[in-house]
Amino acid sequence: MAADAFTLDSGNTAWMMTSAVIVLMMTVPGLAFFYGGMVRTKSVLNMMVMNFVAVGVVGLIWILYGYSMAFGTSTTGFGQFVSSPFTYFGLVGLTDDKGLYPSAGVPALVYVAFQATFAVITVALITGAIADRMKFGSWIAFSAVWVTAVYFPLAHMVWGGGFLSPVGKVSEWLSTPIDFAGGTVVHIDAGAAGFALCLLLGRRKGWMKEPMRPHNLPFVMLGAALLWIGWFGFNAGSELAADGVAGRAWINTFVATCVAMLAWMATEKVRDGKATSLGAASGVVAGLVAITPAAAAVDSYGAIAIGLVAGILCALAVGLKFRFGFDDALDVVGVHLVGGIVGCVMLGLVATHHQGAWYPDGAQDGLLYGGGATQLLTQILTAAIAVVFSFVLTYVIGLVIKAITGLRVDEADEVGGVDLALHGETAYESVPGTGRVIKEVNA
């Protein structure tokens, strides 16, 4: 933990508070609309409520002990992996001079707020893999256990002084891993978790036998637009300052996303004969995911390259579920896991400290920028550790919850629609079953 004296920087503080607000907007309403539009009419409310409840569950836990586990001073004996939940339990004892980065001039509580929004959206992202079929109570229990056992430790490992951080270093024969804004902590983490959970839940009834198209594409595009806007706070805000590095992160986030959207639509056109609105929205998210770990660590050409590769590979990767038979309902694996890996690994090729870019002490230029293969090997290993860590622990957590409460709704409830079965309401009056509810209420 840094021991520098704290001096308030009002400009940086204002930027961080603004960033925290727009990153929270990424989950609700952004992700809620994006995922909500992609599911069928009978499950749109359940999807949106799962995103909302992720904010409630994770937000409470983050304030109680989550921040302490991720960024506190470790007294557990496992400081390379996780910090003590009791150092700042309830944020008691957390003063500005004890904040992780007092030199930025941002009050510790503002940093707590900013990082809370990262924890929230990481959990919410997983819902896209389990659409239409998970018990609501089991989702709440899973959210609480998973964020505690998986997210907080990985955040500590990468950002809080653990062995994947600039302070810890994964190995003396490798360089410092680069993850500017959460390619491993957020996207690889959520993608691997979504993969494990969708395997445990199994396929939706009728999957690959009946149409399961998005019910509201304007919702999807609205959600993607809100995600894109909020992501500037996500990436540029991770600098913790309103400066040139934040400007570089903003520009890279913008251009990589532009290129990824165009690349996804071009891939669709070549493969399917048409470029779709769903493809445009998905390409936006793929580009945002991939540039996240590299946001301030590449120049404009590197950002363009990352967006191009992510747009093409993620567009192709979403078809893997049909080839291998796993029902990743809203393409969490194809977009977040694959996109996160693309961004993380490509840093080993295009990372640079020139042209306003930045990376942590101990990191090196990428292979294509004259830095040799060390950074590439480091990034590959870092991505692999994140995948294995998240997948294995998620699978174990899912098995335990499945044994205690069950994971999946009854078949009749799934076929009839989880909105009505789990929440007693539907999004649209024309949905079968709504009339029955209205008659009962009016009776």
From TrEMBL:
This is Ammonium transporter. InterPro entries: Ammonium/urea_transptr, Ammonium_transpt, Ammonium_transpt_CS, NH4_transpt_AmtB-like_dom, RhesusRHD. One of its GO terms (cellular component) is plasma membrane. PROSITE patterns: AMMONIUM_TRANSP (PS01219). The chain crosses the membrane at residues 14-36, 48-67, 108-127, 139-160, 180-202, 214-234, 249-266, 278-295, 301-320, 332-351, 376-401. Belongs to the ammonia transporter channel (TC 1.A.11.2) family. It is a multi-pass membrane protein. Keywords: Ammonia transport, Membrane, Transmembrane, Transmembrane helix, Transport.
